[in-house]
Amino acid sequence: MKRRILLIAAVAMVMSAGAAVTAQAAGWSMENGSWVYLDSSGDRVYNEWRRGADNQWRYLDGYGQMALNSWVDDVYYVDANGIMVAGGWQQLDVAPDGESGDLHWYYFQDNGKIVTDKWMKIGGKWYHFDSDGIMETGWVDNDMYFCGDDGAALTGWQKLYPPTGDDMWFDPFENQDGKVWYYFNTSGKKYVPTDGEFTEKRIDGTYYCFDSTGIMQTGWVHYDSGKDSIDGYRYYGSSGACVTGWYTAEPPEDLANSYESDVDWFYFSRSGVPKTGPVSGNASTSDFTRINGKTYLFNEKGNPVYGLQRVKEADGSYTAYYFNPDDRTAAKGKMKIDEGDGMSATYYFTSSGKGYTGVYSGSLYYMGKLQTAMDGSRYEAVNVNGKVYLVNEAGRVTKSTSGVKDANGSKYVTDKGGIVVKVDDSSYIPARDAIPPIWWY
């Protein structure tokens, strides 16, 4: 009790600033345990601010008493000593409208007014306050910003729950916790496309894709809605980064029915566009793609083809190319190839991968395919581009100026290059056309 009396006496000294206070003198006065302020007529002052000798503002309420722990005009607050709070943070459990309950943070400006319904930069960070002056957390300002538990607007990459009301979206690469990635600029504003459903943004040298609500995308994205084919899609990895170069993945769900395999190879340009080519059988050498010194051919689905392929040359003629099933590169050299239905044939491909036509190393080829005499016939005349060669059952070009006989006894005479000049002493030369690769039929 003695301590409380001493405290009141000390406050009285501050309020009076050494001046004698009487019931009739203007200024602060203690009446019935409450501070009041008397005007020059000795009447109480109501609903007004007055300074104390310490130069601090205090408020006289509707009873003329100094207000304590109270809101004034819903924008000012006086503390337990009646002093107007100014120039800093204050946590209160009573709102300006008088409701009490949860603790909320408010920021009081130097003039004592709370910040309401706007952003304010405090200590180098941005904070948002609602119409009651309460510092907000979570999604604010039309869900374009997110303020952390400390009220400061987040910047950079943030993994968050979408705003209330948004469809929940689960990241197939993560733990499916319902959180998604957003990107906020240095002022805290969320990045969202300005036009279209999806937009890419380059961040730290890497491209990322965001939908119309600002959610970072992963996996296949139908980026160009004007294209229903694979070249209208982009692929983004688990980190959200746009995939470039080689990548193996399941096809886009909307196109999956047109693919033979559940998983296949794709090649993405530096801008993330999947490489595509013509429909199988319609390719030309101009459709080839060189990657790291190797030749590839892509189909209309964005996959590098493999196996025997019919390709049109620059002069309009056709030939065969073979793309290895393992790495999808154009094959070179001599090899045996399975043509299907249990059939196989020997082929020879040049250093460019082109199926050779003509005589190579003593054997005859057409569109890369080795031309051989029919089994049991010993020899056969084969027409390749207007030249008739005599080949044996191994495909070797036979050169005999004196003549050789086939299994039927027909005698074939050739020049020194193996080209047939007569058969059975006749200038008429019966010959079959060269047999093209199996896909020709």
Short structural description:
By secondary structure, the chain is mainly beta. The protein has 1 helix and 36 strands. It has one helix spanning 2-16; strands at 27-31, 34-38, 48-51, 57-60, 70-72, 76-78, 88-94, 100-108, 118-122, 125-129, 138-140, 145-147, 156-160, 180-184, 198-203, 206-211, 219-221, 234-236, 245-249, 264-268, 283-284, 289-291, 294-296, 307-312, 318-323, 333-340, 343-349, 358-360, 363-366, 369-370, 379-384, 387-392, 404-405, 411-414, 420-423, 432-433.
Shape: rod-shaped
Kindly state the percentage of residues in helix. under 10%
- CA radius of gyration is 45 Å
- Our count of helices gives 1
Would you count the extended β strands for me? Answer: 36
Strand order, biggest sheet? 21-24-25
**Mean pLDDT level:** 90
Computed structural class: mainly beta
Largest sheet: 3 strands, mixed
Structural overview:
This protein is mainly beta and 441 residues long. Helices cover 3% and strands 37% of the residues. It has a three-stranded mixed β-sheet with strand order 21-24-25, with no helix packed on it. Strand 1 (27-31) and strand 2 form a beta hairpin. The longest helix has 15 residues, at 2-16.
